[in-house]
Amino acid sequence: MEPQVLYRVCYGSATPTSFQKSLLGIRPAVLHRHCRHRVLGRDYPAIIPSPSDSVRGTYVHGLTDGDIFRLDIFEGNEYERRKVTIRILEVEGDENGIGNLEGGEVEVDTYIWIAGEDELEKGEWDFGEFRREKMQRWIASSDQYNDVDEAVEARGGDPTGGRGANGNITGQLNREQEKKVMGSAV
To answer: By CB atoms within 10 Å of each CB, which of 10, 34, 57, 148 scores lowest?
Structure first.
């Protein structure tokens, strides 16, 4: 997961404080025997088992139970959190993995697509394209991107699948946070 999206999900902001950033360790990693496809009509990817492929991603450690709760909501019922074994990248190669130097193995949880392969595009999901062209609608504050929200609504679909800065999943997370704040205020 792109760190800014992770921070937005866990901390409510794509630009958390330096203290918040220090709570999580983020390192590049590779998940072998899986591939990543774009979900049809969406900006985001799906990871599925595939014996001859590998997925470049991130290893995140230091997540709290609350962070995992937020990530579970964010990922929704299209995914299932499963144990997998990754390899930490000691040296990052290019986008194709040429030059990667893999280190040790680590068992982690990741989100595997379970909503059916008929919902996936055939080609590999393009992380670079996501960062260049689409990431802002995932990390934006609601006031800054009203034009995008209105255009998405007018088109009749939400390419973030409800996961974006103004989506129903963000709203659900905000409501849960408000309940906790109100509960602790009493």
So the answer is: 148
Count the alpha carbons within 13 Å of 87 in the hemisphere toward its beta carbon.
18
**For the CA atoms of 13, 18, 19, 25, what is the dihedral angle to 10 degrees?**
90
Does the model's pTM come out above 0.85? no
Structure-derived torsion over alpha carbons of residues 137, 39, 115, 2, reported in degrees to the nearest 10:
-50
Could you tell me how far CA 167 lies from the centroid of its own chain? 14
Task: Please report the DSSP string for 121-137 in residue order.
Answer: EEEEP-HHHIIIIITHH
CA 138/CA 160 separation, integer angstroms: 7
Residue pLDDT tens, the chain, 186 long: 888 888 888 887 788 889 988 999 999 999 999 999 999 988 889 999 999 999 999 999 999 888 888 888 888 899 999 999 999 999 988 877 788 899 999 999 999 999 999 999 988 888 888 888 888 877 776 443 344 345 445 555 554 555 555 555 666 666 676 676 666 665
